[in-house]
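Progress against Task 2.4 (sequence-to-structure conversion) is shown through the following example record, which the project officer requested during the mid-term review.
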Amino acid sequence: MTETRLPPSDKSRGVALALCIPLGVFGAHRFYVGKIGTGLLQLCTLGGLGLWWLYDLITIGAGEFRDEEGRKVSQWDPNEPPALGAGVPREFLDELEAIRREVTELSERMDFTERLLTDPKGRAAPPRSG
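Structure tokens generated for the chain above:
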């Protein structure tokens, strides 16, 4: 069985965490993500006597908490564009890294050549036998 990858939730992980810390025993973070039923249960049980609240606090902090549609509440700011590299094929990133290494090596060779050409005393030249 393969799991369908859902896009991340449009709810903020930071807001959910900020609600969970002081008001989590009342289910405020669950109301925020649209889980009204379990929010009411948490409200009536005071966060499952604190255990349910602690579990939610850990899952929100880890980015594994889910909203009413089953999407992970994993982004601190959902309005921010995705991080660089998100959705980019691995082959492209590998090729980019190979090009970066080649440019670095060429730069080091150029620096070495420039030092050889500008050496005023010829210290870099091999000694002459005589």
